[in-house]
């Protein structure tokens, strides 16, 4: 096996790595089952709320509740419950919530677990928190006119959701209806609190938190399936989302990238319908999912040079846009973040990668999830090849130099054709499952995905990789 111990010694203490371990801000890829979120000197004994949410931050309903807890700074405990489409739910949760749906919260009396109360349904939870934690900042309007406007906006938010479903998940879709709903939301932004950052005024309100996670998914899926750029088409919606991304740390932390949403939405809602033929090189989906001829290639452009439609403004750096030194430092930080995750988890990752060539019984709906995959018959030599490929990638990420891509060792380059195909299938299985924010922040995730892509191309050779790429991509 490759010498990971030597490589591990180069990771601790690097800029940007230690900062991932601690800090007051929410970091999703460092969240864990049972984690406590404490604010303003609170201690564990002060925690009354337990939030049950999915571990990948893919559930928009969970996201809105967690944003509320973070903004109000209510101490809470996190319990991770996977979506049913990604595997079986824990028995204890099904006993508590027979439907298995989430989010859910339990709330106990201060200082004890007596008379613990269960609340489900995200809006019910959110209004409960507003009513029962009055000492924390209110997110509700206090006047009658504001309350009426809030109720109208909550109804409109569901109308937009319904029109999104109608356009994305039905043959032919209904673009006219979806655009009209988006226009209604844009008009509300312009008219209810003109000149203000948020839906109800200068401060974030419950309406913003309820709607923003879904608009994040609308913009991603509309680009992926329909070649529709919502934020460019509706400047008021873009300005509203930018304000949330700029000012609300929990929204930034919980945001996914376009690729993660494109792959996480279908198991929850069904497959969307493409407006352009699958595989069309001029379609946005070929850029988003890496299937295009020029997608996910090293060297990557600086984040600030990516097209405006491509990702959330939260993923863009704040440094001087014209400073190449800052751009290079930013890239090195991103590489170190990706390297840290590889080095810390390489043994598990090898086993995970070879699922791509193992036995994969389809026991769940999510195409990118294989909870019952069996890799016991994968040859040990193949696992060593995959380990070596991951090591070569990690070594490049840690090196902090200007080498355009990983240097792949001769033993991988000289393997026979079938072995190369298995190595590439394993690495691409991993590449296609790097999720944001679950595994890494977007800037580091894009480097890792492109690095895996580069290693495969080096192993297979450009011509063979062009053939393998479509074959591997279609099988995952």
From TrEMBL:
InterPro entries: Glutathione-S-Trfase_C_sf, Glutathione_S-Trfase_N, GST_Omega/HSP26, Thioredoxin-like_sf. Pfam families: GST_C_2, GST_N_2. GO terms for cellular component: cytoplasm. GO terms for molecular function: transferase activity. Residues 47-137 form the GST N-terminal domain. Keywords: Transferase. PROSITE patterns: GST_NTER. This is Glutathione S-transferase DHAR3, chloroplastic. The lineage of its organism: Eukaryota, Rhodophyta, Bangiophyceae, Porphyridiales, Porphyridiaceae.
